[in-house]
Amino acid sequence: MTAVGNICGTTTDRRAVISLLRRLRSEEGHVNPLPVWEELRALGDVVRAPWGGYFVTGFEACSQVLRGRNWLVPDFAWQERQPDPERWQAPATREMTRTLIRLNAPTHTCQRRALGNPFDRTTLESMRPGIAALAATLLDDLAERLRTGGEADFVPTVSEQLPVRTVGEWLGIPAGDFAHILDFTHRQVYAQELLPTKSQLDVSAQATLEMRAYFTELIRKRRAHPGNDVLTRWIHYWDAQYPDDRSTADQVVYDLTMFITIASLETTAVLLTNAVWLLTQDPSRAAWLRAHPQHIDDAVEETLRYDPPVWLNSRVAADDTVLAGTPVAKDTTVHVLYGAAAHDPRRNPDPHLFDMLRGGGHLTFGGGAHYCLGAALARLEARELLAQVLERFPTLRPTAPPAYDTSRVVFRRITSLKVTT
Ligand code: HEM
């Protein structure tokens, strides 16, 4: 039984929830989801989803689900019990279900332990100069486009490039492959949507085939030509775990490499774009931060809180339980809404204010056993990029709000942010 103080239970107003979800999917909802978060939270900390299961809107209840041992990720065993084989048996869904984010203990514990902390302080310090140099090169490109065209798109020029080049270099992936990786990543994520359509699953299935072919070949080549890199170390480690079973070792290395790569790209790109958008849409914010660069980390943290790159994550009740006063039966799905949680005024007073000094709380990198393994790397990329943007482009400003892929509400994608100086 779960005890949550001072938070309220569920509503059954189905039409209200459907209408809010429609708004969230609209252009308006993507540009400004805050009214939707507020209205959803007003319906309760735990809100019944129209198709069964619940949305979790309050900060404490979300935190409790992410950290609680009685909440599991929806793994193969759960998926096989579901009545919707088209969704759960789809190849793109199954590909993701073998990865860390869909594994429960003990397999999850074993893989996390093997990975350790891939971005510990020493590793990050060794990566910092390279990330700063990459950011400088991308901003040179931005400067040139601004000089020649007067306007440039920050997303394809900078935000999407820094994460793929950073993680690509870390894994020893050839630079010529980055565009291909970005391309299949953008299409593969549809299978992880809340309610993917048949055509989204088809797009995702094709991208999954390309992704599998790419990473399988990458690992094959690395076996043939080992280097002093992370991927080679993973191959050695998993070969030692399965000395008589090369195909299982290959499968684990594939799952890790593929997942860490795609988990790091769109998420970090949205953070970088959001940081620039939120700081430059109000020039006084950028001016203040330029005068107080010691608060760049705080600006990154407030960006993560204000508009999380991932909006939703799902868990399943391991047993009959009670969440925020709402009984939840074993096997029921609950969807944690990171944005609604971050704008819960009980956790962050005046939540709709972008306040770089608030020192607020957020769950943008998740929590508990599945806490994001790349959080420190994403923060470092954002910090290095922002420092240079502030210094080199004192008059940078958006010419329009960002454009979004509005067909997504789980892994968000900002497709464009036009800027000028
Ligand atoms: C702003 C950027 C990022 C955001 C917002 C983000 C968000 C998340 C979230 C919400 C989770 C799930 C946590 C849960 O289920 O409780 C997660 C897991 C994960 N993330 Fe990130 N992520 C980001 C960047 C990265 C980067 C750069 C990497 C790797 C280089 C990465 C690797 C992972 C991995 C491996 C997991 C799975 C952990 C597990 O299930 O044990 N992420 N991330």
Please, could you describe this protein's structure?
It comes from Streptomyces griseoloalbus. With 421 residues, this protein is α+β, with helices and mostly antiparallel strands. The protein has a single domain (14-420), classed as Cytochrome p450. It is 56% helix and 9% strand. It is built from 19 helices and 12 strands. It has helices spanning 14-25, 27-31, 34-43, 59-67, 76-80, 85-88, 91-97, 107-115, 121-149, 154-159, 161-171, 178-188, 198-224, 230-241, 246-280, 283-291, 296-306, 338-342, 375-392; strands spanning 46-48, 54-56, 71-72, 151-153, 312-317, 321-323, 326-328, 333-337, 397-398, 403-404, 414-416, 418-420. The strands form 4 sheets. Strands 1-2-8-5-3 form a 5-stranded mixed beta sheet, with helices on both faces. The protein has a 3-stranded antiparallel beta sheet with strand order 4-12-9. A hairpin with a 5-residue loop joins strand 1 (46-48) and strand 2 (54-56). The longest helix has 35 residues, at 246-280. It is globular, with a radius of gyration of 21 Å. The structure holds protoporphyrin IX containing FE. Protoporphyrin IX containing FE binds at residues 66, 100-101, 112, 167, 259-260, 263-264, 267-268, 271, 309-310, 313, 364-367, 370-374, 377-378. Residues 66, 100-101, 112, 167, 259-260, 263-264, 267-268, 271, 309-310, 313, 364-367, 370-374, 377-378 line the site of protoporphyrin IX containing FE.
Write the layout of secondary structure elements.
Blueprint (H helix, E strand, L loop, with lengths): L13 H12 L1 H5 L2 H10 L2 E3 L5 E3 L2 H9 L3 E2 L3 H5 L4 H4 L2 H7 L9 H9 L5 H29 L1 E3 H6 L1 H11 L6 H11 L9 H27 L5 H12 L4 H35 L2 H9 L4 H11 L5 E6 L3 E3 L2 E3 L4 E5 H5 L32 H18 L4 E2 L4 E2 L9 E3 L1 E3 L1
Parallel strand pairs: 2-8
Antiparallel strand pairs: 1-2, 3-5, 4-12, 5-8, 6-7, 9-12, 10-11
Helix pairs in contact: 7-13, 9-11, 9-19, 11-15, 12-13, 13-15, 14-15, 15-17, 15-19, 17-19
Bound molecules: protoporphyrin IX containing FE.
The site of protoporphyrin IX containing FE has 26 residues, from helix 15 and helix 19.
